[in-house]
Amino acid sequence: MPLTRRDFGLFATMAGAITLAGCAPQAQAGPPAAPTHSLGTVKQIDAGDLSVGYTEAGPPDGRPVILLHGWPYDIHSYADASAILAAQGFRVIVPYLRGFGSTTFRSPGTMRNGQQAALAHDTVALMDALDIPRAVIGGYDWGGRTANNVAALWPQRVSGLVAVSGYITVDLAANLEPLTPQAEHGWWYQYYFATPRGEAGYRRHTKDFNRLIWTNASPLWRFDDATYDLSAAAFDNPDHVDIVIHNYRWRLSLAAGETRYDADEKILAARPAITVPTITIGSDFDGAAKDGSAYRSLYTGPYEHRVLDGIGHNVPQEAPQQFASAIADVAKHSKG
């Protein structure tokens, strides 16, 4: 499965790199079947439109790190990476994204919106609620896109960035262009979600559907039933299906976003450079984009790209030590 239908064929390639000093990724014997650590108690805090469920690990006065999960995953992707970073003295915040786990909308009248700018605002609102002026932000899938977008829109709030699969900000205009049949085949579920049948099917078979995505996106990851069940509980959120369906329909210009985010989406559509210290990670899921060359020109600050062989889409859970090392290394080269 390729990484994204929208991005990599459209990026300019730029030779050269500004390399961060740091540890090279360690050899991977194979993705762990289950986490070896448990997350702490889930807390709740009002932040913007949401009551956000999140876990926190490490000393309260430690360097803030915010880790954002993707779809169809949840905060348990970071159980091991969070523990590793907390042991190094970081204050690690892992929130449920809107539509997952205990994160709920504070008002029934708020649009159940999955567009990228809404998720970026959620992250900044959480930082404000927790009184975190700046943080290292890391993520993959929806979380990786959100981390990039926060760094693009509010670089003063991001002291360092770890982005799995690189620069995956959505460009709605570019997204209208067809790809090769092989590439399009990998995104069958996005077209399925575009139909009433797809919405009904996802609503009826959410957990079975998402387990199929886990298997397809990480074919070498032999996760066990208990590991999947930990995350699958997060899909019981009453807004989960609405958020997921809107997210994918919005990307295909089949559903409108909210006008309050128009200015942010205009900025993101221009593909702004990321200026903060960054480490990007490519995995087997990324296919031909694994080497990172397609998006190199979009990171203009201190930068390094790392490649993980034998690892699928859920990088933090499949390779927690390597992901945690990237967070720790980028933190060394950032301020605040």
From TrEMBL:
Listed A to Z, the keywords are: Hydrolase, Signal
Q: Tell me where the signal peptide lies.
A: 1-29
Pfam families tied to this protein? Abhydrolase_1
InterPro entries given in the database record: AB_hydrolase_1, AB_hydrolase_fold, AB_hydrolase_sf, Epox_hydrolase-like, TAT_signal
**What lineage, starting at the top, does this entry show?**
Bacteria, Bacillati, Actinomycetota, Actinomycetes, Mycobacteriales
Name the chain's protein. Answer: Alpha/beta hydrolase
Q: Which Gene3D superfamilies match?
A: alpha/beta hydrolase
Gene Ontology cellular-component annotations:
membrane
A single BP term in Gene Ontology: acylglycerol catabolic process
